[in-house]
Amino acid sequence: MIIRRIHFLFLVLATSLFSPEIHAQTSDSTQTEVEEDYSQYGSTEESVKYCTQKVRFLSPTKLISIGYEFQAPFTAAFKEEKSGVNKGGSTSPPKEQKVEFMGGARWQANAPVISNNKFILNLSANYYESKFRIKSAEDNSPVEDKTVNSLKPGLRTMGLSATAFKPLDDKHFIIASVMGDFNGNFTWDNFSDNMPLPTLTFAALYGWKKSDNFMWAIGATQTWRGGEKLYVPIVMVNKTFNDKWGLEILLPARAHVRYNFSPQSLLLGGFEIEGNSYRLLNEESMSFPKGITQLRRSELKFRMIYEQKLFGFVWLSVQAGYRYNFKFNFSEERTSKRGDFLVSSKLGNPLYAGISLNLVSP
Fold first, then answer.
1. 233 Cβ partners below 8 Å, 6+ apart?
2. What is the pLDDT of residue 29?
3. What is the model's pLDDT at position 25?
4. Would you put residue 183 in left (φ > 0), alpha (ψ -120 to 50) or beta?
5. Which of 155, 73, 146 is nearest to 323 (CA)?
6. Of the CATH numbers 1.10.760, 2.50.20, 2.40.160, 2.60.40, which one belongs to the domain with range 62-360?
7. What is the per-residue pLDDT for 282?
8. Residues paired with residue 298 on neighbouring β-strands, in sequence order
9. What is the per-residue pLDDT for 337?
10. What is the predicted pLDDT for the residue at 320?
11. Contact 336, 294 (CB under 8 A)
12. In this predicted structure, what is the pLDDT of residue 248?
């Protein structure tokens, strides 16, 4: 009986020394006593708390995303706007070209290179493509043929970006980002000969973290989403109303209403503006005068996105919606005045769909 009691006392002593939870509680208690002792000497210094970059039930951050997007068939018409493109200009009405297919792969990778409670820095890389299968009209003008030929290699975007989140305290923060994209109808075989000039995007915001359910910020950006360089104000709102409903907004680029079915599945409904300026060159060496043409492309996507956890940190994302063409015009060079086009386009507005497999942040 005495030996059993000795064993029991030894077990209690060992547990109190080596159990992480109890040891932590002991350390906290000791720290509290020390702080109370120092407070007798007039010390009022408090540790600074910093806000985080998320709100509750926000859609998961994608570290790696591999997907594919395609649009239903639609028609396209290309109209010459300047005489001289076709030596004297074309006066015949534009003919409808049948775009039988448009779509391509999309992938993105994000890596937090610095991540602590005082500063977060993410580096990202992305690749988007839009391949075309176009059935040309039989009696196209030379300008229409050259326009169609410049699209047949497809449009591609490769980019790198950096985003920094800097909390100032537990209520205020700063977000800054810079992104460079290479956009054009280049292929991997002619990339060195047809390397496009980069488009640069900058953004900066100052924000308020009101609670774990609400943060918002205001700022400004230089963006190419409208198909040309624009300077616009931006507003960010991430709001969770309850366990089911929320908002994820970055105006004017995108805005979505969020519904959480559970912690493993959610639905987003809203819109996003996509666009950029593309450097075009085709197999004839010259699509238009000077050999370099800028395609100014911008589109508005109304969409629903369903995201579902598959296992671990792997999620499936499926989206579908309606693509509205805002701009798809060709200018002589990137610095051309707004509205000063060589060729303007009228594109049909089809349904579209996309799917991606994602590795998300814990």
1. 218, 219, 220
2. 35
3. 35
4. beta
5. 73
6. 2.40.160
7. 56
8. 275, 327
9. 63
10. 98
11. yes
12. 98
Model pLDDT, residue 157? 94
Calculate the alpha carbon distances from 356 to 38, 62, 108, 314 in Å.
Answer: 56, 11, 10, 11
Tell me, what amino acid is at 327? K
Nearest CA to 351 out of 328, 327, 326, 324 is that of 324
Residues of the chain with pLDDT under 70: 1-46, 82-91, 190-195, 282-292, 333-339
Whole-number Å distance between alpha carbons of 154 and 53: 37
Cα–Cα distance measured from residue 264 to residue 312, given in angstroms and rounded to the nearest whole number: 10
Distance CA 107, CA 253 (A): 19
Task: Give ∠ CA 358-361-362 in degrees, rounded to 5.
Answer: 125
Amino acid, res. 253: A
Q: What does the pLDDT read at residue 43?
A: 41
Question: For the chain, what are the domain ranges?
Answer: 2-39, 62-360
Q: How far apart are alpha carbons 118 and 114 in whole angstroms?
A: 10
**Residue range 328-348, pLDDT digits in tens:** 998 876 655 666 788 889 999
User: What is the C-alpha to C-alpha distance for residues 58 and 4, in angstroms, rounded to an integer?
Assistant: 54
Tokens matching residue 80 = 């010459």
Euclidean distance between CA atoms 220 and 133, whole angstroms? 38
Written as six digits, the tokens of 259 are 């519904």
pLDDT value, residue 336: 59
Smallest CA-to-CA distance from 218 within 228, 230, 203 is with 203
**How many C-beta atoms surround the C-beta of residue 122 within 10 A?**
20
Q: What is residue 338's predicted lDDT score, i.e. its pLDDT?
A: 65
